[in-house]
Amino acid sequence: MACLIQKVLWVGGVHLIMLELEDWSMPWEGQNRSMFSCISEYLFDYLILGGKYFLLSKFHA
């Protein structure tokens, strides 16, 4: 369990995450469920442009 937690701790320390999801190739299979579950634990504003997701942190250290 500690290994899984350490793999996502970096998410809380960044100001911007840019994603391009490829779930269109396997629709309705939940390929990105774990990613959305992880980022939902943090406060981000979301901007979606042309299939790209920009997650902007609400906290700036």
Q: What does this protein structure show overall?
A:
The chain is an alpha+beta fold and 61 residues long. The protein has two helices and three strands. A three-stranded antiparallel beta sheet has the order 1-3-2, with no helix packed on it. The relative contact order is 0.24.
Q: Which descriptor suits the 3D outline?
A: globular
Quaternary structure: single chain
Uncertain runs with pLDDT below 50, 5 residues or more? none
Overall pLDDT level = 78
What's the domain count? 1
The total beta strand count reads 3
| Backbone structural class | alpha+beta
Major sheet details: 3 strands, antiparallel
Percentage beta strand: 25-35%
Total DSSP helices: 2
Order of helices and strands: HEHEE
Rg measurement, Å: 13 Å
N- to C-terminal distance: 28 Å
Which bin fits the share of residues in helices?
Answer: 10-25%
Strand arrangement across the biggest beta sheet: 1-3-2
Lay out the secondary structure.
Elements: H1 2-8, E1 16-20, H2 33-39, E2 44-49, E3 52-57
Antiparallel strand pairs: 1-3, 2-3
